[in-house]
Amino acid sequence: MSSLFSLEGIEFRYDTGEPIVLEGLSLQIPAGKVTAILGPNGTGKTTLLHIMLGVLKPDRGKITLSGKPHQAYSRQELSRLIGLVPQFESTPFNFTVYEYALLGGSPYLSPFQMPGKEDLEIVERALETAGISHLAKKPVMEISGGERQLVQIARVLAQRTSILLLDEPTAHLDLENQSRILKLLKKMSDRGESVVMTTHDPNAAIFGADYFVLMKGGSITACGSANEVITSQNLSRIYRVPIRVEKNKGYPMVVMDKGEA
Asked: What pTM, to 2 d.p., does this model score?
């Protein structure tokens, strides 16, 4: 399994005197797979994504991307390699879906340069891949939450990156839209792109991911395949509630254990 990101001994806090968010974190993220980072809220998942993206710098430790030190990449190089779909993203202008997706081409344009024919074609393909071509002329503010998530993914597709980071991409979505997004992420990995997503929902991770990372208190507690990582003991420990993992057609299925009344 080739490594995409390699993190060793990462420590991070947002300011001097603030609590440590990530402590002694070491992790290998595989290339060409969908990796799910699971853990409760406040355990450092989003911070870890921002360190991979390069917008946050660790206080200690080192991170490499495809075998090259992270700091050796320029900001523009990273923006052409890695795209981020945040959990929350405000839209300051009433962009149409097409206009919003067109923003993904910014790393390839100089200031004040207008998109060319190729850039427009890339956006059209991105919308088609995300299954939202029919929404191209709709204002972003007038579409559903699930559709907005797909629009954000289309923007990153238009960014032409080979690495996609997503922060809680299925949070607050109904089952249909969860399925659409997770299937799209799997489709991207099948064509050789690398996907890393955070989630607090083990079942969503099982449905869409190939590789699993469990986090608690800013550290890694387990990583590997679903059968290795998604166990009753592991999940009960990190979420601090009784959790039962059952097998359904060979795949783990996570259920809350009522325990004793």
From this structure: 0.89
